[in-house]
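Sample entry follows:

_____
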Amino acid sequence: MGKKGISLDHVHRGEAHEGDTDWTIVRPGLNYVGFCKNQSCPVKNHSVVCNRGHGSHLVNDDVTNDVPKCPKCSTAFALSEICLYQCRAKVVVHGHDSTTDRYEAKGSETIMLGSGGQPKGAKEVRRSGECLVEITTKAVGLDACVVC
């Protein structure tokens, strides 16, 4: 991750909005975003969100263990972005040059870490012995769900 997978240097802020799809709902804390590639899934090739919530998460381990799954068909998907919502987050990239960044997403604000929607292969994250990404989130603001 970091240098070989999703670029954590690419950060953009946006707004969550209400919608009518149940496969793109972001919940407070850490959310994984990707595209379902299961040919029999009703949302194949569409953006999907896997909610991880608050706590400490090792992103590399989650990807290796196929934690990001499509909420419609439960098929593991390749991670394209990380979405932070209604939380305070500490992102630590452990490696030769360890870095720590802090973010806070309040109200309907989302903070997207990653490639800006362009899928990057999870295989790159799995192979990355160069660094380990740990994200720890804590609650802030309202505890509601909206569609990203």
In short: DSSP finds two helices and nine strands in the chain.
